[in-house]
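Handout, page 2. Input:
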Amino acid sequence: MAIKLFGRKRKKACVVGLDGVPCTLLQSMMEKGVMPRTAAIVSRGTLRPMTVTLPEISSVSWSTFMTGKNPGEHGIFGFTDLKEGSYDLRFPSFRDLKTETIWDLVGKTGGRSVVINQPSTYPAREIPGVLISGFVSIDIDKAVYPKSYLAMLARNGYTIDVDTAKCRDNPQRLFSDLGALLEARKRVLDEIWGTEPWSFMEVVLTGTDRLHHFAWDAYEDESHPHHSDFFDYYRKVDAFIGHVFDKFQREDSAENFFLLSDHGFCGAKKEVYINTILQTHGYLTFDGAGPASLSAITGDSKAFALDPARVYIHQRGRYTKGRVEEKDVAGLKRELTQLFESVTDGSGQKIVRRVFDAAEVYTGPHAAEGPELLLIPHNGYDMKGKVGAPFVVGERRLQGMHTWDNAFFFALREDLVDPSKDLEIVEVPWMILRSIDVGP
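Output:
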C-alpha cells in the first residue's frame, strides 16, 4: 500500500460519473457540437468503450467501481436478492457490501474523499471524508455522512433523485426536474469543494440514466416533440463537466481527471420474461395458477430467475424446496444455455445474444451466493425476472434499457490505460487510485 510522504504535496483525482451513458452516444454528442467542453477535454486524453460487471445494472456496476472487485468478492448481485431460507425478496444495501471501498484505501494513506450522489451507498456509513448516497436512498437523513452536511443540502435544495413515478409519463416535468437536480448537484459540489480538504473527489449524475429510461425515443427520433429537450439536457451536462474540470484545473494540473459510465444504453422494443420461458419449457412450476411471487415455487422446479437476467439452479441444500443434486448442475446449465440461445420473439428473431456461466465471471469467497447463469439480450429486448407473466414477450414499460457493453471510460492521462486490451469496469478504480499513488 502506498504511504503518504510527509512534506510532499498529495496528488488529487477528480471523477465525474455519468450513469448509463453509452460511449457511442457521448461520441455523437461531442461530434454534433452538443458537448463542446467535453469534446475539448476528451481530445487531450483517451476515451475507451468498456464492458461492465454482470448483471449490467447500477447496483452491481457501481459496487464494482467503488471496490475494484467483482460480485463474487463484494457480494452485490442485483437490486434484489432472496432472503436466506426463503423465496421472499430482500433489497441489499450498503451494509451488504463485503469488502472495503476505494475511499477506505484513500483513507489508509491519510487522504480524504468527497463522494456525491454515489448509487448503492445507502444507508451512508462513515468514510474518511464526506459521503452523500445516491439512489436507492429512502431517507435523506440516513443518506449523508457526516450528518453536519444535512443543513447545507437542504439550503441548496438538494434531492437524491427525481420523482420517477411522476416523471415517467410526464416529459415536461422530467426535463424540468432533471435540470433542477443538476443545478442542485452543482451548488453542493461547489460548497463542499471549498470547505472540505480532499484528495479524491467524485460526483455521479444519475439524471442521464433517468433521461434514457423515460425519453430514449426523443433521442432517436428527430421529429419527436422533445428531441431538442433531450439535447438541451446534454448541453447542461456538458456545462457541468466543464465547470468541474475548470475548478480542478485552477487548483491542480487536472491531469488526474476522469469520466466514466456504469453501463451502456439502447432503445427498448419489448420486455422478455425469463421465468415464463422456464415455465413454458418445464423447468419451473408453481402451486396454483397466476403466481404472485417465487414463494409459490414447487420442489419440482429446476431453475428460476431474478431481475434482470440472473438464472439460479434450484439446488438441494441451497433452497428449502430445492431438489437438483450437485452432480446434475453442470448438465442442467448446458441444457438451459441451449434453451436460451434458441428462444425467439415469435418472428424468428433470437432474443439472447450470449449466455455466461457465472463461473466465468465471478471469483471470490461469495461467488457461490450468485446465480449460475447470466443472460445478455440482443439490443431491444429488456429482460425481466417477473413471475406470472402470461407471455414470454410483452410490451415495453421503459423506452430505454441497459447494455453490458458500450459503457465508457475517459482518462486525461493516456499512460494509465493499456490500448492493447479490452477495458472492463473492475480495472478502472485501480487506474484512478494509481494516479494518486494509492493501491497495491
